[in-house]
Amino acid sequence: MLKQAIKGKKITVVPVLGNHDTWIETIESFSSPNQNREINHFKSQWAEWLTSEALQKFEEFGYYSMPINLLSGKKVPPGSRVIVLNTNVCASINWFLYGQRSDPGGQIAWLEETLLEIEAEGGLAILLGHYTPN
Length: 134
Fold this sequence. Notes:
This protein is α+β, with helices and mostly antiparallel strands.
């Protein structure tokens, strides 16, 4: 439906995985990459909006980063990136996390590395997430 609504318009889409996007709601394993059925489903749906590098990272655990390229033609500083976090790691009712409490999916380590790269390039970072940390 969204794809039809924005077809032909210069609108940049940056998709974010939400807690109601998984089934059972909010439940997602971060024990090994490329194992979440929901993420694999969204990967094919979001392929036109993500770079191949971002898509490859997304399929691991649902988070990714990519350069900011606005379809409107407006510019951002070189080296700038959008960072999309999989905030389902913040869901206290996700029973998979009881055994994966130390940086599920390696997301925090990856975030730190990505932010350091952006800073070194003089860019800016826009962080996006869905589910509020608790």
